[in-house]
Amino acid sequence: MSKMSRATLISCFIALMPILAKGGAFEVYTTNGTGGVSGYIQNPTNSSVFGGSIQVKNYGDTISTRKGYIRFDTSGLDFTPAHATLSLAIATISATIADNDQTIYVYGITNQALDLVALTNGLAWSNAPANNPTAWYEADLTEAKLLGSFIVDYNGDYASPTGTVVQFSSTALASFVAADTNGLVTFLIGRTGLRPQDNLLFAGDNSTTHSPPKLTCGTGFLSMTSLGNGNVNISALGKADWMIWTNADLVADERMQEGRGLGALSFNSTGSLQAGNSAFSLLYSWTNGTPTASATNLDVNLLLSQANATNAVFSTSVTVPPASNSVYITFGQNLATSEITASLSDGSASPRALSFATSQHQTVRIDFLSSTRATLNVSVRLTAITGSGGTIRFQSIALANAIPPAGTVIVIQ
Hints:
The chain has 413 residues and is mainly beta. The protein has three helices and 30 strands.
């Protein structure tokens, strides 16, 4: 018997991967179930392709214009999702302009009768489900609704190379999935931007190197936003609790008076944990601290990994009550790249991650919600050393809202 290639094995594994439906979490690929499929339609020819890559182009009334279709079998979804995420892996990307942001519009087909229209090769541009044949990126809004959009940056500061997985989430997406009654949800995607005729393909059903489209639903919510490198008024951010570390013993040296809710900070690396100062340190202000009662634009020490040490990671956790909350993490990197990740222990929302490559410090806000008393796990790790003496740094955590004791009844209105 001939040997199968690793790529073929990956493809087969994804195709046979069971639909995940556990507690308040649901995950499905287009290769799961009997109705899932992805592909694209092309104007004005009938050379549509399904089962392969999802190509989106916008070149007006020419054969270069294409819109993508994605359909999931959601018959295994047995709860009403509060949150949903569409994940797409970039298979091909090219550009001739340095900073070329492309906007991808995501439409949900609301006429559920169109979920039963076969998405097959040769599907005509003129009568494809919910397509607006006279618009180069839009759907027919009598048959579909706009769920939102996301940005793909070709070559700019946040470039998205081949293999990047882009994620789209919105309240409208969750509501669209929740309103489905036939176990199939179909999306149409279009594109605008500078030179939208340049190649952009997302991995489809037959990809042997990247995951096919994935839809994740949950009863929880998790998002992550970079707030940049401005100075920190930590009392304003942390109404419930905050901590600042300035010594390598991992004991918070400044903390909110009677603060409660944040967990301990841990560190692992091939090198030792150190403390020091940096030109990149953000300045801190507070009014309710201990042992220092208040401060204004104070340049405090910070924690940092040993120079050039690998596998450095800071980790912490927060208990998640069934009410929305936010955590603010301030950290940095110098001559290194870093990544911050966050996940809920009950799996009720998709994990989140942000990467940073510029030598600086920054604050990241993590918004979260879980229908159970789950744990929010957060890690900041060094992903690569880009120059001699590369390190990651950690400064502080702030918790926006109080964590009520276990057993407290919370009324959400």
